[in-house]
Model the fold of this input.
Amino acid sequence: MGAQDADIFDDMRHRLITGEFGYGSKLRAEKLRQDYNCSASTVREVLFRLSTVGLVEFQEQRGFRAPHQSLERQHDLTQMRIMLESEGACLSIRMGGVDWESRLTAAHHKLSHIETRVRSSGDVIPLLGLWSRAEQEFHETLIDACDSKLLKRTHQVIYEQFRQQLVSAETNYGYFPENIREHQAILDAALERNEDLMRVRINDHLARNLMKPIPEKTQVEAAGKSSAI
Done:
């Protein structure tokens, strides 16, 4: 994939996870070709690649569509994100140094500033692009010191599918006022180097998106086993 194709892929990925395309809406290749002033084959290649990371659905004879919204899918993605992010964050606590702490603190500062502005205005739409990128940067930095490329790559795929399921006008694009407090709590657990608390804080942040909560006993046992690794 060339440089232009990569730029189109990244832009389309951002559009897909910030709610620009309605759930189940058809992604018209001719319209996208005009948007990006590129060839039809480039659009098709980009859409096929996006389908491999779960952000686009493809069916023979029907073409490409944005995925449909599904509470069951949202639940599964939330469970996966809790597991991956908890493990990645705890590994980062063990392996990350002052550089990781500094980068995480900086990412949180940017995110907190944007979320405070959104809370003050009561309208997430003007800052949706900035907020989405800052939120993803914070959570990716949280696990960045885990020393597992596979975990980080898998987390990115799950995170973006999760955001895509959550982002719509009906859900206020996934913005909750409690995010400010919850992101601060996650940062505090990281700087305290407290793995058990980190697992709790990540679960507290994401559990609202589950159809049914993960049993508390299971969370505690899993945290205990992970801490013993």
Notes: The radius of gyration is 18 Å. Residues 218-229 have pLDDT under 50 and may be disordered. DSSP finds ten helices and two strands in the chain. Residues 77 and 162 are 6 Å apart (CA to CA).
